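Sequence in, structure out. Go.
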Amino acid sequence: MKNASENPFRLPPRFTALVSAWVCLVFALSGCKAPKDAEPALRSEAPASESEPDATSAVVVEVDEAVLRKDELEKQVGYALAARNMGDVPPQFLGQDVRDQLSREIIERFIAQNVLLSEAARQNIAAGEEDIAQAIGEISAGLPGGMTLDEALEGYGMTVAQFREDIRKDIRIRKLIDGKTDVVEPATDAEIKEFYDESLEHFQVPANAHTRHILVECEKDASAEKHAEKKSKAESIRKQLMDGADFAKLAGSQSDCPSGKKGGDLGELTRGQTVKEFEDAAFSQPLNETGPVVQTQFGYHIIEALDRTEAHTRPIDEVREDIARFLVDRKKQDVIEQYIQELRSQSTIRYGESYGSKDSGR
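Output:
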């Protein structure tokens, strides 16, 4: 179930992907394995030139003096797959369209990154060592326990020095963008109200029931004798509960469901998340009381409903701050996209022969 406090609306991904490729790597370093060797990210429609001894070094796109080559593009596709928990999926199961889409996103990000960096250089925008140290500290804190940044980066063939340089670029871009978006006005009450009224579907909270259970597993097609045995065991457990036994302890020792390790707690369930027999009990039993044994296709359950929330629409006062942030971010998105288009029009952009023939800001 979606957390009720979660922002129910999102900006387009490109708004959060206008900066350097280290962002993808940050996500990957948070626990994903290093990506396996990537296959070609875009299928070349023309054979490699005979004068090109190494096809992996073929130019994908040039932005002023910056060059993205095929091998780097493929590496970035690998990072992106790892960040999306797809790094271990065999290439044949991904589909070329997935890799092509990622490649297009990376190419566009490379162009945006470099036109912004050129402008940051023109404006003498720098990234201080303190800024870099803070960013690295935040990234290191998000690594799996016991893993150092050096160890994490080693799996990606990247040194800390290279990583620091990518972070430096990102900070310079962020400072440049912040300078362009600081003129964006806060959302007005009228704008917030208009968005709320037009987007009520985003603020619907379905009915939910916080439940815990103990499962005595029994296959649906088991013999009548086996069903009788399992049901009897469930009834015995229920009797212990009625006599005052601790539910969580019994779940830990008796339940055949993995939730037994958490005292049988299943968290909040919405309608449609579980089988009908279980759902009916969870949404009808008196709260904090041990219900009768319930049979489902999984076996026999002893269920307790700990809390329930009726379906409702979140009031505007509850989501006002979320909406205000979203509307400001959307305004910033418009400013940034327009700014990047202006910078692109002032830059020289050339695509490699196999990746298109667009020029100069297109």
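Check: The first strand starts at residue 59 and ends at 63. Residues 316-345 form the longest helix (30 residues).
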